[in-house]
Amino acid sequence: MNRLKDIWGGQDDMNRVLLLIAVAVFVWSLIEGHGMYGALMAGVVLFLMVSRHGQRLKRFSRLYGTLYFPMPDGEIVPRTFEQVKTEYLHGSQGRYAGRAVELRFPWWYLNSAGEIDTGFGLTVRLAGSAELLDEAKRLYEDRFVFCESKLDGLDGGYVNGELINRRFDKGRGIKAVCDYLGVPLQDSIGFGDSDNDLQMTDVVGISVCMANGSASLKQRCDRIAPSVYEDGIAKEFAALGLI
Prior knowledge:
11 strands, 9 helices, 3-stranded antiparallel β-sheet
């Protein structure tokens, strides 16, 4: 079952539509007593799916399948995923063991094992080791704020992790918009639920945290709205006289 979920999750919208069509055609053919023709048609559609998926893997690999290896002298050496895979499979595992690497890919999904599928054949295993996070902070904390928030939810809650570019934050964004529109900051209202909203509370006139938000944000905000699962924003809009 998990394998089927992974196959479904790795398809684009067109392939999902094709799969549904194949299933519908096959079921309809069985009902009409033409199961052989239905199986043939489903086979053709599945062949198109496999072909499209293979072309998509090649396209994603060409566009995004580059691994960037930082060298001791500061140089960044790019290597394609196919090059690294070929060398690794032919006995060069030691060459890459323990090496830091940067990946840049705009599309991904979490498979049933909790791993990141990049869409071009590379699966990234997520480790829970604090040492790995410390290493990432050492490398990038001068450029990014590491934002980790524990949020409440219907399923018992979850940890929200984000990277915030140190050159930008929501507080600066709100100030820029208010300056552009000529609206005084004291007339602005900001809603948030995680620690990436902390800077927002420093500039808005009224700061509101959702009831399912992080504890640190709740301490900083002026008001607490009902959770997003209880139409909290609409209720708070009404409470503030906005609607």
